[in-house]
Amino acid sequence: MLRSATKALNSTRLMSSLPSVQKVVLIRETGGLEVLRFEDNFPVPEISSDEILIKNKYAGINYIESYFRKGIYPAEKPYLLGREASGVVVARGDNVDKFQVGDKVAYLSGNTFAQYTKIAQDKQILKLPETTTDDHMKQYAALMVQGLTALTFVNDAYSVQKGDFVLLYAAAGGAGLAFNQLLKQKGAHTIAVASTDDKLQLARDYGAEYFINSQKDDILAKVMEYTNGEGVDAAFDSVGKDTFEITLSALKRKGTFVSFGNASGPVPPLNIGRLSPKNIKLLRPQLFAYVTGADDWERYSKEFVRLVDSDLLTAKIFGVYPLENYKDAAELMEARKTVGKLLLEIP
């Protein structure tokens, strides 16, 4: 009884020593970059008995934030942006037994473009070694969404086999570079699509084997050239509307179309009968549905940590921006002027 009371008292003291307001990036309405707001008086969340409070150090920037900002994906307002982060546990609820105050962690969650984020202890959180360096804190923040997306997709969305030809769009972006590395390890032949020769060289450095410059080349013609007219076994398409028809045509008989982004806008409604002539499989997966179950999270998180800690999966950090400068980073990303991953450093 005394131990329980002491634990509750310590939790209360920890929370009372924290600030009541924090700095965040959010939207209060949908629209262009102009609706992004940096606020310095947003309430610090209060944790329940099963939650921890994390002081964020780095947060990953992902293209998906633009979908919420533009209203492509619905969200209640105000909507605090962010999908992933690394940081340190600064408070825990009375029932928390998996984490201690002071633990270094990386995690998947909304609301990470903030100084503090709360999350239940049984959600997608990685406890990192005490010796985790600042550089590795950046790597984990950079890879939680895109690295795990690539890892789950090449196993669950389409089980990539040695010798497969795989079409990969945005091959020099954060997700693209993660896909390149994992596809190479599986023995696949990656056909990388990017908008500049410099980006294609980066894709080559990370494991791609064939290359298509989307600004100069006929994508479908190049795919057929590389595959001797057969088409690809699978395609990972994050572009959406502008490439959907090309990708559908580029698939071989019994090919798999993995559509997972809307960079050019949402894909229009499809008559599913169009999949029949080649027995195409069409998926619209998302990472969280692959790691929601405890067993799935355990399996994928262990493999993810192994890959990151052994440098078999690395992120190219394009830039680290102060939290208040998120708008500048988003503008560069959406103008396709970046490669690899962008991070926010949380004050």
From TrEMBL:
A single GO CC term, please? cytosol
Tell whether Oxidoreductase is among the UniProt keywords.
yes
Q: Name one GO molecular function term.
A: quinone reductase (NADPH) activity
* Pfam families, A to Z: ADH_N, ADH_zinc_N
Q: In this protein, which residues make up the domain named Enoyl reductase (ER)?
A: 31-344
The UniProt keyword set, sorted, is:
NADP, Oxidoreductase
Q: Does the keyword Transmembrane helix apply?
A: no
| Entry-linked SUPFAM superfamilies | GroES-like, NAD(P)-binding Rossmann-fold domains
Look up the domain of life of the source.
Answer: Eukaryota
The record's PANTHER family line, in alphabetical order, gives:
QUINONE OXIDOREDUCTASE PIG3-RELATED, QUINONE OXIDOREDUCTASE-RELATED
**Entry protein name:** Probable quinone oxidoreductase
